[in-house]
Amino acid sequence: FLGPNFTESYCWPPIARGCDVLAISHQGNDPLLYIPPLLTFLQSESCYKSLPNRSGPLALIVCPGWKKAQLVFELLKIYSRFSRPLHPMLIIVGQKKEEARDIRIHRGCEVIVTTPYSLLRLFEHHSLLFLRLCHLIFDEIEVLFSEASEQVFTILDYYKKTITIEERLYSPHQIVAVGTCWNKHITELLKEFMNDPYIVITSMEEASIYGNVQQVVQLCLNSERIAVLLRILDLTPKHIEKTLIFTSTTSETEMVHQALRSNSVFSVEIHKEKEFSFEYALQHWSSGTRVVLVLTDDCMQSLGITDATCVIHFSFPSSPRIFGQRLQNMSDNFHNVIEKGSCVDQEHTKARSVLFLTENDACCALGVLRYLERAETEIPRELYDFTARVLEAEEEKKFARPLCTYLKTLGICKNRRVCADRHHINVQTDMPDKIIPTLGCVTVVPLHIINATNYFGRIIDKQKDQYAILAEEINDYFKKPSNKVSVEKVERLALYGLYEEALFHRVQVVEFSPKEEEKFFNVTIKYIDEGRISQVESHQLLQLPARFQCLPPQAVEFIVCSVKPIDNEIEWNPRVTSHIYHKIKGNPHEAKIVLTLGNTVWVEPMVRVTRLSNLKTSVNEYNVRSEILSMGLGTDNPEHIEQLQKL
Question: What are the residue boundaries of the Helicase C-terminal domain, all occurrences included (predicted)?
């Protein structure tokens, strides 16, 4: 351990002293921003002597989902080994009331890691949960506010009521919120629930949102930028006196400077080839008159300006870091939103940022839109139209990508703007395979379980199961030792045989990277009749006769539709997946196909049917969807298929 990083060096001291802290940073999703200083404070047992003498947590860490909560809990266990015993607990509660009621907080448990929904369900049956609570930590605060703002404010209200009673007057009370970007609800968190908070924002573009910098986007053609710039300067209010115009090259700086001079706008040009002008520019800048500087990004640090009132991005910034550095030139005029009587109306702000967006910057349009949405600024209709066209163009580039997993399993992709996979129908790829029925009832055998609703397996032909016949022939063939011939030269996408768990399988080589000196090497293979992917050593692959390669791959992807995880989660809790895995793997089920795309089949219902031969009848053991719902960790998703059909 080399010591705290830049953000940690600012966050750790105030958190370790028990202060309220808000931290916004590019590393804001790292739990180590708060775990070490929190553990440090928890060592001071004397601070908690005034608390009621009963069990209950001293600290609650609220995470945006079960996956992040699991990570935080594991880190907490690692770093608390060298502290006094804290007995941390990870609590994820489903919608079954008896589950929350039956949870017992371990004696001596001083830290609980949970999610907002789980915490409120727990609180319904454990009303004294907040009685000893001193530290309330929010991990990834921007995600919590965007996904569960109502629940977060309910938790804050409970906490505020708890710490304001007379008995808690001399005990610690601390709120810590960390995240990667600003959210509109953070202002209320700072003003209504935090007491004289330390605000650490290491990302200058996010600091400008906190500082209420007026953000303006100017859409124009690249050839029209000079005309638009002159119009902006002509309309600049009188109180804006100090303007910086950023360009990307020396020649562009000179071009803008000449254009301004030709239109009677006095300006000073600064770039690395005119270093002698730095002193003159700074003298002119500090003169107090209306000043316009035209400069390149590499001059910012040398000038050290912090009191600009307007920054014009004539050239689009090359990165978010450069964008933030440009905005830093106005930092003296950033607004402090937590000052009493402060006004956050952007019309009254002293700092303004004008961003030129041309046809050459199309790839950045989505990022600009997301930023403006967080800044709650007025967004021109043209920008929405422009980004829609950009998004459509980006989707067309994903023509060869697989259909998005979240779109398939949930009917929606929350991260569509940044997701690498396809979100539209590709007629060639998504045409149903000839061997797969498009509608009707079928018998399916799940063999590879990805999660609670997504599996790979086979469709069984009740009349004549071709694969069962083939599998028997393959096993009979390889029983003869002389037929077990190892492959000498492995080829990508070729089919081979593989012996595993007393059975022989057909496998396809997906990827391998042999080194010259290695005789044996690892090979990534796909079991074409089961759907799973694995790694084996090259010498394990066996030559597969052509007659065993004729039958098409039998693995089909099944998705049980109209059910999704609770609490706006996009990943299934492992408890559900494990339960479904042990119930369905390898067992035949009756399923009704409602949609087929490519090699993927959506089914509802999917039922395990047991035939009672003595009574010449059958009974339904369970419905997979109902089984998921009964665990309290899944909920109805009625729009699932409807969303897919819209594609």
Answer: 228-391
* pLDDT tens per residue across span 582-639: 999 999 999 999 999 988 999 999 999 888 777 777 788 899 999 999 999 999 999 9
Residues of the chain with CATH 3.40.50.300: 6-202, 210-392
CATH number belonging to domain 6-202: 3.40.50.300
Q: How far apart are CA 20 and CA 194, in angstroms?
A: 6
Enumerate residues 6+ apart whose C-beta is below 8 A from 82.
none
- Report the C-alpha gap between 575 and 569 in whole angstroms: 14
Number of helices and strands in the chain (H, E): 20, 25
Task: Look at the block and give the residue holding tokens 């009493």.
Answer: 340
**Can you state the angle between helices 35-42 and 66-79, rounded to 10 degrees?**
50
Domain range 210-392, its CATH number among 1.20.1050.10, 2.60.40.10, 3.90.1170.40, 3.40.50.300: 3.40.50.300
Pick the CATH number of 466-548 from 3.40.50.620, 2.30.30.140, 3.40.50.11890, 2.60.40.1080: 2.30.30.140
Assigned CATH topology for domain 440-462+555-646: OB fold (Dihydrolipoamide Acetyltransferase, E2P) (2.40.50)
Buried-state track 587-624, b at ≥16 Cβ within 10 A, e below 16: eebbbebbbbbbbbbbbbbbbbeeeeeeeeeeeeebbb
Q: Helices 141-163 and 116-125 meet at what angle, rounded to 10?
A: 30
DSSP code for 542? B
Model pTM score: 0.87
3-class SS string, 147-190: HHHHHHHHHHHHHHHHHCCHHHCCCCCEEEEEECCCCCCHHHHH
